[in-house]
Amino acid sequence: xxxxxxxxxxxxxxxxxxxxxxxxxxxxxxxxxxxxxxxxxxxxxxxxxxxxxxxxxxxxxxxxxxxxxxxxxxxxxxxxxxxxxxxxxxxxxxxxxxxxxxxxxxxxxxxxxxxxxxxxxxxxxxxxxxxxxxxxxxxxxxxxxxxxxxxxxxxxxxxxxxxxxxxxxxxxxxxxxxxxxxxxxxxxxxxxxxxxxxxxxxxxxxxxxxxxxxxxxxxxxxxxxxxxxxxxxxxxxxxxxxxxxxxxxxxxxxxxxxxxxxxxxxxxxxxxxxxxxxxxxxxxxxxxxx
Amino acid sequence: xxxxxxxxxxxxxxxxxxxxxxxxxxxxxxxxxxxxxxxxxxxxxxxxxxxxxxxxxxxxxxxxxxxxxxxxxxxxxxxxxxxxxxxxxxxxxxxxxxxxxxxxxxxxxxxxxxxxxxxxxxxxxxxxxxxxxxxxxxxxxxxxxxxxxxxxxxxxxxxxxxxxxxxxxxxxxxxxxxxxxxxxxxxxxxxxxxxxxxxxxxxxxxxxxxxxxxxxxxxxxxxxxxxxxxxxxxxxxxxxxxxxxxxxxxxxxxxxxxxxxxxxxxxxxxxxxxxxxxxxxxxxxxxxxx
Lengths: 290, 290
Fold this sequence. Notes:
- The structure is a homodimer.
- With about 290 residues, the first copy, chain A, is of the alpha/beta class.
- Chain A folds into two domains: about 5-110 and about 275-290, ATPase, nucleotide binding domain (Nucleotidyltransferase, domain 5), CATH 3.30.420; about 120-270, 2-Layer Sandwich (Nucleotidyltransferase, domain 5), CATH 3.30.420.
- Chain A has eight helices and ten strands.
- Chain A has helices at about 40-50, 105-115, 175, 180-190, 195-205, 210-235, 250-260, 275-290, and strands at about 5-10, 15-20, 30-35, 60-65, 100, 125-130, 130-140, 140, 235-240, 265-270.
- In chain A, the strands form two sheets. In chain A, strands 3-2-1-4-5 form a five-stranded mixed beta sheet, with helices on both faces. The first copy, chain A, has a five-stranded mixed beta sheet with strand order 8-7-6-9-10, with helices on both faces.
- The radius of gyration of chain A is 19 Å and the shape is globular.
- In chain A, about 55% of the residues are buried.
């Protein structure tokens, strides 16, 4: 069976493994801290490729930042990774074909092929983590837009300019629906500016009223965002993945969303392609074209 | 050249004309008030079809309400038209093939083929009128979603629950960006609850400070909505059409939007397919398949 070397490059960690064309991980998963220095990042990726490329058919990169429609290079903002990273020439690092895709898009593809949105032609995936990522499937294809940057979940949820977003603007869905969003909501409700996301989850587990109210408010903000996305896309389902998804009650969210849609009902479900869905999705995409 | 009988069915007016496959209107345009009674609406449509069907190749209906993916019937909410309208069996009214599409989708298609988004593979069209309609083109195809209802512009712009939307929820883009939205914004700024949209426009023309502030605030709300849509779709352009579009400053809106995008720049332009773009778009779609 054909196989891809998959590399997931984020601002904090870089992972790699080998994935077959069924989307199964068929090697150990290696984990590295992302170096601060650009050259060190590029040398690490080169080393990973050199060690593995003879054993695979293609190289699949899932990366932070928007990726062009040719799946060759990064075009957009790349968050907290070394400056200049977006100029990385991945193809020059291997004699095999290299395929590059945004990590959230890759994860959405994994959910679409082997995960929670498997039989859905139209779906929206949200990765709820420190921030919020998005990947959208329309008629069984990834939504890429004119330049490849589509699926960014920076739409306004408020007009009060109280919360500044990582994108430089105010009041984006991300700054409400992310882990950071939960923290800020809990700080407002409890009056404790130093409360952490971990504190909130512990509080909920201990039946703390204010923490439970913060979690509910956070879910209601997620509901508000999904109402808009579902009215715009009329999707078969909305998939929640990422480290914060485990704290959502998708039955509650589905029910609340469907109360207010002008489009036919949708369902909100948790992702099932696992923690390495970015690598799996990138590999499945790479193996389709290479 | 092949031709379609095009009929535009709205809650207030019903229009009909004949459109050729270049998107040119090649007959007079007939205008009727939409009857209150369902039977009278259906009889009027039957009469229009009976009078014209022998002279055309196909029948194209642009209608209020969401239309299914087979383009045969209405599935969604139909606003202020007679109850039961959505059950209308259009095909039974003609011996020619009948093609049905949502009016905003049809207008977006007209802009895509002969109008302001002509050379754009990816575009978002907003019709700014009493309410707000939407039609989205992705990779040169209409976005329809799982059931045909995609493109509804009911996403939240606020969390303060001050403005109830026609959809039953609060704070939708529609209730800020529509003519009604401008009226409500002007009422807030001037303190006059009876101010009309017409009064605001007259005030702007007379250099009235409060009316100018209301128009600017209305445009800023449109900007906020477009920022979200452009980050989600990464479109080549955003087209503003409908009766209120003439009061927008698209250079200002483009400039403001591009200040805050995380995706590459887009441009916001006025529609150029004219007041009858719904009929033109429906005809062009019908002539492609029938």
